[in-house]
TrEMBL record:
Transcription in keyword set: yes
InterPro entries: Homeodomain-like_sf, HTH-type_TetR-like_transc_reg, HTH_TetR, Tet_transcr_reg_TetR-rel_C_sf, TetR_C
Record-linked Pfam families: TetR_C_11 (PF16859), TetR_N (PF00440)
PROSITE patterns for this protein: HTH_TETR_2
Protein name: TetR family transcriptional regulator
SUPFAM superfamilies linked to this entry: Homeodomain-like, Tetracyclin repressor-like, C-terminal domain
Source organism per UniProt: Streptomyces dengpaensis
Domain HTH tetR-type: start-end pairs: 15-75
Annotated DNA-binding residue span(s): 38-57
Keyword annotations: DNA-binding, Transcription, Transcription regulation
Length: 201
């Protein structure tokens, strides 16, 4: 089976081309939204030949999928503080900083909006969050091992519970959550987890 366009990890000049194209695609998404993402325009911004972009990514959705894959790979690794609350506060702070960033926040809004009507973008977005949730799952698992959370706690559900209210705030108000909101999100998720809300099976 051949790889999906844009998913092969290149080196050398090809890597530089990929970096430039993904940066340009992210800029367009942040500035103008998914509807205005055009491969020819991205190629022009990246100073890359149109045929290179069309051959490599094939479509706008293929390009967005690769952009999200790259973002997941480049994201900051988890923080381990020695307590599940400390770890998840760090997670919430990272999510808040991302959403508050003028470029990143706008980019995520554009991709989320596109995912509501485009199945390939939706799948790429799901894969992005699967990678990010998996990165932070060990923090919750360690909390269970230390006895801070009950055995049987679904770690992925807890991690998602931290970021969910932060995204909801951004999407429903248009304003990025502040540091206090991030702390509340982490504290609420940990309190619910400690009460057994996320015990499954």
């Amino acid at each position: 089976m051949s790889a999906e366009p844009g998913t092969v990890r290149p080196g050398g000049r090809t890597a530089r081309v990929r970096t430039a194209v993904l940066r340009a695609a992210g800029d367009v998404l942040a500035e103008q939204g998914f509807a205005h993402l055009d491969l020819a325009d991205v190629a022009r911004r990246a100073e890359v030949g149109k045929t290179t972009v069309y051959r490599r990514w094939g479509s706008v959705t293929g390009l967005v999928a690769d952009l999200l894959s790259d973002m997941a790979e480049q994201s900051v690794p988890r923080t381990e503080t020695g307590s599940v609350l400390g770890d998840l506060r760090a997670n919430a702070a990272l999510v808040r900083r991302t959403l508050a960033d003028p470029r990143q926040g706008a980019l995520f809004r554009a991709v989320i909006a596109a995912a509501t009507s485009d199945s390939r973008t939706a799948e790429a977005l799901r894969r992005f969050y699967e990678v990010r949730v998996a990165e932070w799952v060990p923090c919750v698992e360690q909390g269970v091992a230390r006895g801070e959370l009950p055995v049987g706690t679904d770690a992925a559900l807890v991690v998602r519970a931290v970021s969910a209210p932060l995204y909801y705030t951004l999407l429903t108000t248009g304003v990025a959550p502040d540091a206090a909101a991030a702390d509340r999100a982490a504290e609420a998720a940990v309190a619910a987890a400690a009460a057994g809300v996320y015990v499954v099976g």
